[in-house]
Structures are given as structure tokens and as C-alpha cells.
Amino acid sequence: MTIEKLKELLQIRVDYFEQHLTDEAMTAQLKAYTANLGTVPDEVAEPAFWAAIGKCRYPKQFLVDWQDAVREIMRKRLPSDAALWSETMDAAHRISDCYAVHANGGYAGEAKGERLEAARQIFDGLPAMVQRWAGSPRELCDLVNHNTKSELNKFTRPGFNRMLANASLQEFRQPEAVPQLKQNIAPAAQIGPGSKTA
Fold first, then answer.
1. Is a pLDDT exceeding 80 seen at residue 159?
2. Is the dihedral of CA 138, 140, 143, 149 positive or negative?
3. How far apart are CA 115 and CA 23, in angstroms?
4. Whether the predicted pLDDT of 110 surpasses 70
5. 18, 33, 77, 132: which has the fewest Cβ within 10 Å?
């Protein structure tokens, strides 16, 4: 959330609760709200603010109510628990296939370790909360290789659902695409006004 938007909303909150805060108290609140909601985009923070102010009973409880409203909005932007579980299990099977191909020497013409990199990319495509829950691509692979589908649904999925319910606000963000730099490629020569011609 931008600092301008946070200041605007905090001023509305102060006016709404008819509080008169000292500069020090306002600075302290600004720091607390920034630490807890600073990574939330403005387009999520503002509607969550209005939802929280509508149900908040005590000014000192407002930050918690605002965080709950943000979590609710961000959770609606993600797939359902069932869809996330299905996506995670699909990723686990694809990672398992990558490890099996790597163990058998990889595909013809592939660089050594290319299948392991593919497994890492599949894992990195999962939401941060799922990555934290799974631990690593290998652990996610082992999960599906050492359990039947019914065991996964009966024993593992309840913990997965609890993890989703308790995830922090920062973990609700989808992983951002990071541009991949190609190695061993020299930059193109640049010609400028100071270049000499032959």
C-alpha cells in the first residue's frame, strides 16, 4: 500500500472514531500499520478498510479487523482450497516425473540437471504458502510417491487446509514471474555517436 493511501485511510479512521492523537501516537500507528499492511496493494487495502470500519467496535481492534478483511479479499482472489489441493497434487506428479527422467539419465540432448531445474520451476510456480507447506520439490515429490490418493486425502489434506486457513497476508500473493537471464550470451555491440567507422 502506498504511504499516501495509508495516511488518507488512517486519517479517516481517526476522524471516524473521533480520536485526537498526538504526532507521536500518529507516527507510531503509521509504523504499525505499515509493518502489517505495507505489502497489500491499494486496490485491496481500500475496500478492506471500508469493510473493517463497518464492523469494528473498538479503535484498538481496528488493525486486526482490517487484516482480516484484507485476508478475506485476497483469499477470494485465489482458487478454492479444493482447486489449490488439485493444483498442488498435479505439480507434485509433474515434479515426480522430472525426478524419474533425471534418474534415468534425462532426455537425449538435454543438459545435465535440466530435469531438476524443470522440477524447481514447477515448484516455484506454486503460491508461497504451498511452497512453505511442502518444503521443497523433493519433499512434494516424496509425498505423492509414498502415499496413496486416499491416504493423501484422509491424512495430508486436512493439514493442507489448516495451513491455508492460517496463512499470513504476504503468502496470499501469487509468485511473480522473474525474467530468466540466459547465460553465456554476450551483449550486442552498441553503436553510438562516438563510435569509429572503419
1. yes
2. negative
3. 57
4. yes
5. 18
